[in-house]
Design brief:
Layout lengths: L1 E3 L5 H12 L7 E5 L6 H6 L2 E4 L5 H7 L5 E4 L6 H17 L4 E7 L10 H16 L3 E7 L6 H4 L4 H4 L1 E2 L12 H13 L6 E5 L7 H12 L5 E2 L3 H10 L4 H15 L10 H5 L6 H9 L2
Parallel strand pairs: 1-2, 1-4, 2-3, 4-5, 5-6, 6-8, 7-9
Helix pairs in contact: 1-8, 3-4, 4-5, 9-13, 10-11
The chain binds NADP nicotinamide-adenine-dinucleotide phosphate.
Length: about 290
């Protein structure tokens, strides 16, 4: 039995779809959900629904019965609680006999020296914790989702251009569906025990280069502006983001500018047995006419 945590989120749903597309039978897949009202789609597909909250150790222990491989998708709860929640999941998995835990970590040059250290250190802590316990693990070091580009670069890119204080830093953005496919490979094929994979595109792009790709796709010039951090945050707030989330997104811009995501490594082609979809094709699928 393969259990997917964070099943109601973007990456969890995409991973379940990838598993089903690979021919894994729905009754060999379990979805961990904390709110049963979100489970109808899984039930209708024949996927087992297990109720559990990362915050509630006992709920996790009952949810993980008969599970062999477990995908721990990093929590979206308040950052201060994430490591503690991940330890709950890992400890409950160990106690219930799960044989292999796959964790979605984060690909940056050095999580503990990042200017975002307060936001990302829990990934390093969770990865270290997993390496210490006597259960097989695989770390999937995910880069930034390509799906984040529309969220962080302005809500009217086509008319107003891309607007983010990200300098000339490059990021190997990868679509969530491709990350999910790589995870599904690890969940369904042998030989991934105690390995760490970089889940990123082969090529990294700056926002100036993304503006060029969009200009080609749209047949009109898309410009790249670098607003001051304060005005970037103010615009996100104006567009409905909470103040804290806006400042968090601005820190991504700063980390990108410093080249922190440009790690120049990728294991995706090897895992998928093909090149992932190019950033240009992904952008075309979102912005193309
Ligand atoms: N690499 C990137 O660019 C990037 C971008 C954004 C986020 N992330 C990280 O990657 C993770 C997955 O991304 P995503 O887009 O799939 O996020 P998402 O759509 O926000 O999904 C998060 C999932 O975690 C579940 N969850 C949160 N707190 C939980 C708890 N206490 N107990 C049980 N389940 C809990 C949520 O359940 P509910 O549906 O009940 O809320 C949801 O299923 C995020 O959680 C975040 O840590 C990475």
């Amino acid at each position: 039995m393969i259990l997917i945590t964070g099943a109601t989120g973007n990456l969890g749903k995409a991973t379940i779809n990838s598993l089903l597309n690979k021919g894994i039978s729905a009754n060999n897949i379990a979805a961990l959900v904390r709110d049963e009202s979100k489970s109808a789609e899984f039930k209708s597909k024949g996927i087992q629904v297990r109720i559990g909250d990362y915050q509630n150790f006992e709920s996790l222990k009952s949810a993980f019965q008969d599970v062999d491989k477990l995908l721990l998708i990093s929590s979206s709860s308040e950052i201060a609680h994430r490591f503690e929640q991940h330890k709950n999941v890992i400890n409950a998995a160990r106690e219930t006999g799960v044989s292999h835990i796959i964790y979605t970590s984060f690909d940056m040059k050095d999580l503990r020296r990042s200017i975002m250290v307060g936001d990302v250190q829990y990934h390093a802590d969770t990865s270290d914790y997993l390496k210490q316990i006597a259960v097989h693990y695989t770390l999937m070091d995910n880069t930034l989702y390509a799906d984040m580009i529309p969220i962080i670069s302005g809500n009217n890119i086509l008319d107003e251009g891309i607007s983010i204080p990200a300098g000339n830093g490059k990021t190997p953005f990868l679509p969530i569906t491709e990350m999910a496919e790589a995870i599904a490979v690890v969940l369904t094929t042998p030989g991934h025990e105690n390995k760490e994979y970089v889940i990123a595109a082969d090529a990294a792009f700056s926002f100036a280069e993304i503006a060029d790709l969009l200009s080609d796709i749209l047949g009109k010039r898309v410009t790249y502006y670098q607003p001051e951090v304060d005005s970037y945050i103010a615009r996100l707030v104006q567009n409905g983001f909470p103040e804290d989330d806006s400042a968090y997104l601005a820190r991504f811009g700063e980390a990108i500018a410093r080249g922190e995501f440009d790690t120049n490594k990728s294991d995706v082609k090897q895992l998928l047995g093909r090149s992932p979809i190019s950033l240009k094709d992904f952008l075309r699928s979102i912005y193309g006419k």
